[in-house]
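REQUEST ID: PR-0412
SUBMITTED BY: lab tech R.K.
PRIORITY: routine
TASK: structure prediction, single protein chain
INPUT:
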Amino acid sequence: MRSRLGLPYELEMTIRSTRNQRKESTMPFVKVGSETGADIDIHYNDHGTGVPVVLIHGYPLDGNSWERQERALLAAGYRCISYDRRGFGQSSQPSTGFDYDTFAGDLKALLDHLALDEDVVLAGFSMGTGEVTRYLGTYGSAGVRKAALLGVIPPFLLQTDDNPKGVPAAVFDGIKEAIVADRYAYFDDFFANFYNTDVLAPDRIGDAALRASFQVAAAAGPYASYACVDTWLTDFRADLTRIDVPTLVVHGTADRILPFEATAARLRDEALISDLTVVAVEDGPHNIGWTHPDEVNRALLDFLAR
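STATUS: complete
OUTPUT:
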């Protein structure tokens, strides 16, 4: 049997496999664990020179979602390292390790792999703010210069007796049920509120960008899409008290995913981080990095230049 190229079928398959292996071997990964004998690898990108800024994405996107900030950071002379959380993007899609202790361990593995141990800036968006917070709470700030948090998930989303400002657990149970029933339909609804499309489309979020976000989310691991919901209920209050580096919070006042008053305002009003700067983006949705890049980039670059 011969292929369309006129080669024996087995030979062409071997050539294609070799090409794929070569391509994969040139992509940057760091091993962070294993599951049933297979490596769990985190994919990352590393561009530029200068002070390193590690960019940690939000749910359910990947490292490329920082494109509007990375462009500005590179132009300003910073080094940008972005990576895909386990279960998302080009990283492995395991069924283990979906908790913030593990996520913070994955971040540490990346920092160690790249020998980033001096003047590092940790920047997180949405779920990524949890990685930054848990990392600093667990491993301390040695080697970390500053932290930047966009669309913050801390301090604690779940409503409990000692956290009455949180959200009832039933809300998150409903989210998980919707993902199990039809995660693609859930993503449609999620992104409508992620970008406040009823108000901001098409001027600040176009159809093509919305479709791109959906495609990234749909390509994420089905298990990860579900398992991450429980991580949103993590109590970060003890971690916040251990943050001893200058910290920037940028948050949209019209955020429907992580409402400003339940998150950023609490960090500010309850003085939960000792050296904190809060920038409110008026009428900004959750993903202000895409819809309001000028405001976000200005705040970020000003903060880093101090």
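NOTES: Residues 169-194 form the longest helix (26 residues).
REVIEWED BY: pending
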